Amino acid sequence: MPALADFFARRSRYRLLLTAFVLAGVAGLGAALMTQGTRPATTAAATPALQNVVPAPAPVELVPEAVPSLAIESPEFAVTEAAGVEDATPAIIGDATPAIVEPIEAQQPTAPGVIEGEIARGESLAGSLGKRGVTPLAVDLIASKMIGYFDFRQAQPGHQYRLTQDAEGRVESFSYRINPLLAYRLSRDADERYVVERDEAKLETRTVHLAGVVTSSLYGAILELGENAQLASDFTDIFAWSIDFSRTAQSGDEFSILYERLYRVDDAGNEVYERPGRILAARFGGAAGGHTAIYFERKEGRGGYYRPDGSSMEGRFLVAPLSYSRISSRFTNARRHPILKTTRPHHGIDYAAPRGTPIWSVSDGEVVYKGWGGGFGRLVKVKHQDGYVSYYAHLQKYASGLRVGQQVSQKQVIGYVGSSGLATGPHVCFRIKHNGRFVNPARVRTPEAEPIGPKGKDEFLAARDGLLAALDTGSHIATGL
After folding, report:
1. Do 273 and 217 share a structural domain?
2. Domain CATH code at residue 333
3. What are phi and psi of 454, to 5 degrees?
């Protein structure tokens, strides 16, 4: 029995020694791995002191099978069965200094030079500049220095910019162009201060003569002669109290326009035609009769259009409340309703136009109704002088901010074409009441604006004669006559 007890005692000591050996081996392996993660292996000739600049060690691959299943955890290092070297977080040992990682902006500074770009749809100035490597600090500087001149929250697609930076990436100058005529410039002066300037292109004026013949429409005829739609719009506005061009203009009608053309000089020094300016004299002749208009300023900067006899071209009511495609229904006491299929009065004029076309008040007045009008759909009523009230029905929506009690001026937009209520398509039903009774809008005749008085008559006649002579004999930029 003593021999058996001695056998088991020796066996227990061997087991303890074996366990201690295994633990020592694993601990040594962990220490070796930890040392390899922080410094290179040394040779007999190597100086035992650690160097402050430590070269990157070669990657160490740890095969999972070579790691004992026993997990050893310590505050400085942990290795588990599925871990690799990348998962370990070694402690810094001795005097070794960790490498400092610079932010991306510092590693890749904005290159000095000139950056040009254009605001894209759905893009802000900060986003556009950021895509081109401009730092947020530079963007903030530009925005802060230009406060009071331009709010970049109002940036629109097509706006252009040009940024100049020095070798350190500091802003030297910044130009922001709204359109060909207007830009804002930020620059740094000799005292290292930033200054902002508003840059408006100077326009040169030339008086020219355009004449032509209507083929399909007045707009089409003017466009065919090389001018833009703005001139056509301005021409029809002059005669808006006398002629309904959408209804009365016919093929063969003649027009003649004496007007200003505005030119600017671009950055390359080239002269560029910008747009038409004021119409000085205009004539239209055809199925609607003959009409002539002269521009005259009673006071400097305050002008209007007059007939050759000095009477005003402007009346109290415009002939139509919008630019329309066609008249789909006229004023009548007996019309078969397209939806109700009954015959009933239609005391208005239906102007068909694309959905969303602006509708304006035909005269100065006060909004007395804005809301749903049953079969009229969305309806606006405007009260005018001398007992007149105008109706605008079937609107898609109202003008922003329009309210009852608001004063509106002639040709101010009050709503947009729609098909609300009893309507088969987009149009506006335009009606006028006079002293409580509906009247035919096409036959309403109201007093005109004030004519030229005796005091300014001689000055007007002199201006009239000169403009009419130029209208008849002036040089043509194009002609269809």
Report:
1. yes
2. 2.70.70.10
3. -60, -30
